[in-house]
Specification:
241 residues; single chain; mainly alpha
């Protein structure tokens, strides 16, 4: 394996890790919402075909909606940064003394004093790009987002569809290959496993306890399914009696 191939693989995995947050939260939403639809359909005693139709309609519509929202949010953050950055460049060029005083105040608040403070201010204000970057970070509390809005939306959509498909898998299989097995039971087991995996990934993203993260994710999913099941059961009894 040559060095160029190793570098390409390393770059690929770094790219995946960069968008892991979007994958995790898209997957959680996909599994929770689709499992809730399946549980609601089961509670309402709908047949397998209807549950599959409702599940896929929800999966595709919500997945598209969520990915568009993620894309627009990421794009908005980039535009916001660029807008304020251009304002800061204008201020540095047209009101340098005021901006210099602001840098001085920022570093004075950090504990710089005397000659050290003057040297720091002189160093920063000698480079326009560094000057603006400091103002963006320390005055406006804005950081440049390096992620591509398109890839943010794509990662969200992919994870929503992949993980969100899991609650429908057993129903789809049983529709084409009928069996006497408890469909909803196996769906619940498979979906719980998906929650465990996605919860473990969430602990990596948030750098928290894996046990706590898995427990929260599984608990959220099961609670949503429980609510949907009883809503479906109540409505089915109400409208069929």
């Amino acid at each position: 394996m040559n060095e160029a191939h190793i570098h390409k693989q390393s770059s690929y995995f770094q790219n995946l890790q960069e968008y892991l947050r979007e994958f995790v939260y898209g997957g959680i939403d996909g599994a929770v919402t689709t499992f809730a639809v399946v549980a609601g359909g089961f509670g309402a005693d709908l047949n397998t075909g209807i549950i599959i139709i409702l599940g896929f309609a929800n999966l595709l519509a919500d997945g598209f909606s969520m990915s568009v929202g993620a894309y627009l949010s990421a794009k908005s953050e980039k535009e916001k940064y660029k807008k304020h950055e251009s304002i800061e460049y204008w201020e540095v060029e047209n009101t340098p003394e005021i901006e210099r005083d602001e840098i001085k105040a920022i570093y004075k608040a950090k504990g710089f004093q005397g000659d050290l403070l003057e040297k720091a201010v002189n160093q920063i204000t000698s480079d326009k790009d560094l000057w603006v970057a400091e103002m963006m970070k320390d005055e406006l509390n804005l950081m440049m987002e390096t992620k591509s809005p398109f890839k943010v939306g794509l990662a969200t959509l992919a994870s929503f569809l992949i993980v969100g498909f899991i609650p429908l898998l057993v129903y789809l299989w049983t529709y084409f290959y009928p069996s006497e097995s408890n469909i909803f039971l196996w769906t619940s087991i498979l979906t719980t496993f998906a929650f465990v995996v996605i919860g473990a990934l969430k602990s990596i993203v948030n750098q928290t306890s894996a046990t706590k993260s898995i427990g929260e994710t599984v608990g959220l999913g099961l609670l949503a399914a429980l609510v949907a099941y009883y809503v479906g059961d109540i409505l089915e009894n109400f409208f069929t009696t």
